[in-house]
């Protein structure tokens, strides 16, 4: 029974992993040439069950308007799975006064099982508005994951698009960046895992709260 419960939890983790469970790596382009090394803790709650997640990441200012990043989900390693994410944040419209900065995020997520080598890749695209007030950056945005293998989910319950909404605030000092972010995952449906549908309140996905900390390296 314990063995079965372990793999059930592992499958649950996998389902949540491709539902945009990571906190935003960067929300506004950082200075050209700057590095930020950070981590995030938190996780979604489905019904009354909280799944704690941990990840680390690095971001680099490619130029004044684009920042590239890569991350590793530490929790997945405990379930014999590798989960990597990478992408770029591009400034589309500069902010001015009360008008927010508009940024686009394009990237992908790689998942690979150490048990059988099964590998999946999930592209994602998002957009967000960021208001910059000295050291504070409140923001709101949306992100959509694409599941090219949704047709393999039992009973035709898979979904090509996995949307999420997020909002938060970052506080930046000379050496550190602190953040808190709330996410609403898959707001249009209940979670589906192998052989089982995980019910959520009126089928409205899951909710997560995340905390981030990054070190600034000029």
Q: Quick one: how many beta strands?
A: 13
When the domains are counted, the total is: 1
* Sheet having the most strands: 10 strands, antiparallel, barrel
CATH class category: Mainly Beta
Q: What class do helices, strands and sheet pairing give?
A: mainly beta
How many separate helices? 2
The CA-CA distance between the termini, in Å, is 51 Å
Element pattern in H and E: HEEEEHEEEEEEEEE
Strand order of the largest sheet: 1-3-4-5-6-7-8-9-10-13
Tell me what portion of residues adopts beta-strand conformation. over 45%
Overall, the morphology is: globular
What number is the mean pLDDT? 85
CATH topology: Porin
Report low-confidence residues grouped into runs of 5 or more.
1-10
- Helicity range: under 10%
What is the alpha-carbon Rg in Å? 17 Å
CATH architecture: Beta Barrel
Characterise this structure:
- With 218 residues, the chain is mainly beta.
- The chain has a single domain, classed as Porin, CATH 2.40.160.
- 9% of the residues lie in helices and 56% in strands.
- It has helices spanning 2-17, 74-77; strands at 35-46, 49-50, 53-63, 66-73, 81-93, 101-113, 119-130, 136-146, 161-172, 176-185, 191-193, 196-198, 206-217.
- Strands 1-3-4-5-6-7-8-9-10-13 form a 10-stranded antiparallel beta barrel. It has a two-stranded antiparallel sheet with strand order 11-12.
- Strand 3 (53-63) and strand 4 form a beta hairpin.
